[in-house]
Write a structure and sequence with these properties.
The protein is 49% helix and 12% strand. Strand 4, helix 4 (88-96) and strand 5 form a beta-alpha-beta unit. It has a 5-stranded parallel β-sheet with strand order 2-1-3-4-5, with helices on both faces. It has 10 helices and 5 strands; from the N terminus they run E-H-E-H-E-H-E-H-E-H-H-H-H-H-H. With 223 residues, it is an alpha/beta fold. The protein has helices spanning 11-21, 36-46, 62-71, 88-96, 108-119, 127-139, 162-172, 177-184, 188-202, 207-216; strands spanning 2-7, 27-33, 50-53, 77-82, 100-103. Helix 6 runs parallel beside helix 10 (207-216) and helix 7 crosses helix 10. It holds the Pfam family GerE. Residues 3-119 form the Response regulatory domain.
């Protein structure tokens, strides 16, 4: 059973989400929050598998709430559900530790699939969309005045083998596990093992965070 906390300042949105989720045999809503502060408190009390997190809420917004929940180190994962498609709020949410995002006009089955994906540690958005999202995300980052300086090895990459570094690079380029297996001539089970080790070694919560790492460490350059 996947437990879900709904954080949204619109009562009707919370009601609709609850009705949808509780129609599923494998999901249950354990709480509702009308703002970010309530979301942080309830996440600490209830330890839900997934928080459906709105961005714009009174008081503490969804971005800061996401940051605080993920910083606590609990198993709870955050799925941003926003009115705004691919804007700076969504990028900030991913940076804060969210496992992915959907827009509020998504189909019900997309939301349900997204919750299930996040609960199992997968990325919500498809790898091809992840690449487009991160390309846009990187272009919103401020220019680093030291970008012309010789690059220094990021400590998060130090423990990776050459093969794991290669796979992290193509994850950042939006390759699926099937594509990685085919193009690198590996069994798909081997790819899954490598991906799991990459996430563990780099401290990445999920595939989206690994993509962000690939960009942050310049393994992948924005197109």
């Amino acid at each position: 059973m996947t437990t879900v906390l709904i954080a949204d300042d619109q009562p009707l949105q919370r009601f609709g989400s609850r009705m949808l989720l509780e129609s599923q045999d494998d999901m249950t809503v354990v709480g509702e929050a009308a703002n970010g502060s309530e979301a942080v408190r309830l996440a600490a009390e209830l330890h839900p598998d997934v928080v459906l997190m709105d961005i714009r809420m009174p008081g503490l917004d969804g971005i800061e709430a996401t940051r605080r929940i993920t910083a606590a180190g609990d198993r709870t994962r955050i799925l941003i559900v926003t009115t705004f498609d691919l804007d700076e709020y969504a990028y900030a949410g991913l940076r804060a530790g969210a496992s992915g995002f959907l827009v509020k006009d998504a189909q019900p089955e997309e939301l349900l699939a997204g919750i299930r994906a996040v609960a199992t540690g997968d990325a919500v958005v498809a790898p091809s969309l992840t690449r487009r999202l991160l390309d846009a995300y990187v272009h919103h980052l401020p220019t680093d005045p030291s970008s012309d300086a010789p690059p220094q090895e990021d400590p998060r990459l130090a423990s990776l083998t050459d093969r794991e570094r290669e796979i992290l690079t193509v994850i950042g380029q939006g390759w699926t596990n099937t594509e990685i297996a085919t193009r690198l001539h590996l069994a798909e089970s081997t790819v899954k093992t490598h991906v799991g080790r990459i996430l563990a070694k780099t401290g990445s919560r999920d595939r989206i965070q690994a993509v962000i790492l690939a960009y942050d460490t310049k393994l992948v350059q924005p197109s």
